């Protein structure tokens, strides 16, 4: 009898120490184990690698774990498989640079139903598939700026073409719509948009599409490539064919990849934002959503580390977005100071 009482007392003492310790350890493990995922379009894309670098930096400086994923090919089906895996891993948030505006909706909704904060960056998911979207810059400004650049390069008259990424890329398509809108101005009556080609953000295909444009349209004077893979491919082809001064390329490019073509005249100037900052802003959006500091509603504000304060605003697709800032112009005067940055 005495032994039973003593044993019970000892057991109670052990439990009184073990349970609080277990709960505390579990809470600490859960806090330390917060995981935020970033899914880019495809592997082997220097722009995407910089975005993921920025995301990882932003997540890790907050003390959390960053999971970086990308399929081999830029397809919606491949991204769906990755997102399904991340749902099974019960991550805290998923940010995706979408290969298709609508096709990811079922899996994105599954993620949100599982309690995962789902949003997009760079290339948007549709509003039903996301809590908000991290956008590089105002889409209208990007589209109109690129047409204005082409107009300048061809002296107000001539044939131009667009070399885009995939035909489903929401950001590319929106920029192209604003390019077409800008072209409606009578100022551009002597500018002819002869074709919109798609290189699928693959180097070899973008090279082939550029070569096809030059063969099909011998009077072509400017190629607008609103994709870092496409603009580098077009610069390479124009340089290899020694067409500098006859055919120009402009668009959105990485300074490190475009410095050579800016120096040799294939690309008089081009634009971009810092992809590291896009990823970094996405990281702070992820943690603000996870902590429920924001819900993705217009008018909400949050702090994004070294980038400062940001406000969520209404987007043109009836969803919401967070704008990083205006595009930056790279030319012969500043390319050398930027080419070693990204």
Q: Could you characterize the architecture of this molecule?
A:
This protein is α/β, with parallel strands linked by helices. The chain has two domains: 155 residues, Rossmann fold, CATH 3.40.50.2300; 134 residues, Rossmann fold, CATH 3.40.50.2300. The protein contains eleven helices and 15 strands. It has a seven-stranded mixed β-sheet, sandwiched between helices. A four-stranded parallel β-sheet has the order 7-6-8-9, sandwiched between helices. The protein has a two-stranded antiparallel sheet with strand order 10-15. About 8% of the residues have low confidence.
Properties at a glance:
single chain, 342 residues, alpha/beta, Rossmann fold, four-stranded parallel beta sheet, 11 helices
Q: How many helix segments?
A: 11
Average pLDDT works out at 92
In CATH, the homologous superfamily of the largest domain goes by the name Response regulator
Order of helices and strands: HEHEHEHEEHEHEHEHEHEHEEEEEH
The tally of strands reads 15
**Structural class by SSE content:** alpha/beta
The CATH first-level class of the largest domain comes to Alpha Beta
The amount of beta strand, in percent, is: 15-25%
Q: Helix coverage percent of residues?
A: 40-55%
CATH architecture of the largest domain: 3-Layer(aba) Sandwich
> How far apart, in Å, are the first and last alpha carbons?
76 Å
Unreliable spans:
5-31
How is the biggest beta sheet arranged?
Answer: 7 strands, mixed
* Overall structural domain count: 2
The shape is elongated
Q: For the largest sheet, list the strands in their spatial order.
A: 2-1-3-4-5-14-13
């Amino acid at each position: 009898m005495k032994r039973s009482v003593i044993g019970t007392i000892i057991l109670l003492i052990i439990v009184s120490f073990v349970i609080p310790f277990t709960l505390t350890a579990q809470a600490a493990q859960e806090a330390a184990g917060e995981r935020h995922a970033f899914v880019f379009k495809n592997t082997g894309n220097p722009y995407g690698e910089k975005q993921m670098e920025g995301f990882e930096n932003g997540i890790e400086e907050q003390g959390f774990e960053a999971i970086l994923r990308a399929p081999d090919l830029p397809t919606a089906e491949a991204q769906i498989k990755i997102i399904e895996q991340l749902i099974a891993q019960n991550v805290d948030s998923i940010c995706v640079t979408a290969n298709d505006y609508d096709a990811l909706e079922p899996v994105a909704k599954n993620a949100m139903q599982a309690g995962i904060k789902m949003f997009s960056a760079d290339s948007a998911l549709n509003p039903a598939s996301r809590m908000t979207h991290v956008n590089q810059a105002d889409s209208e400004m990007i589209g109109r700026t690129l047409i204005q650049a082409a107009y300048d390069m061809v002296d107000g008259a001539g044939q131009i073409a667009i070399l885009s990424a995939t035909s489903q890329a929401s950001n590319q398509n929106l920029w192209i719509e604003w390019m077409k809108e800008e072209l409606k101005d009578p100022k551009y009556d002597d500018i002819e948009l002869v074709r919109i080609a798609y290189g699928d953000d693959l180097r070899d295909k973008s090279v082939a599409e550029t070569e096809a444009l030059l063969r099909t349209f011998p009077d072509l004077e400017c190629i607008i490539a609103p994709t870092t893979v496409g603009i580098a491919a077009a610069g390479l082809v124009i340089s290899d064919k020694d067409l500098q001064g006859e055919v120009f390329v402009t668009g959105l490019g990485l300074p490190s990849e475009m410095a050579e073509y800016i120096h040799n005249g294939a690309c008089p100037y081009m634009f971009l934002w810092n992809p590291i900052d896009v990823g970094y802003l996405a990281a702070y959006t992820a943690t603000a959503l996870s902590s429920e500091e924001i819900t993705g509603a217009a008018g909400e504000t949050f702090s994004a580390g070294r980038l400062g304060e940001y406000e969520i605003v209404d987007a043109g697709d009836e969803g919401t977005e967070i704008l990083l800032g205006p595009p930056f112009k790279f030319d012969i005067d500043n390319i050398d100071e930027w080419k070693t940055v990204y």
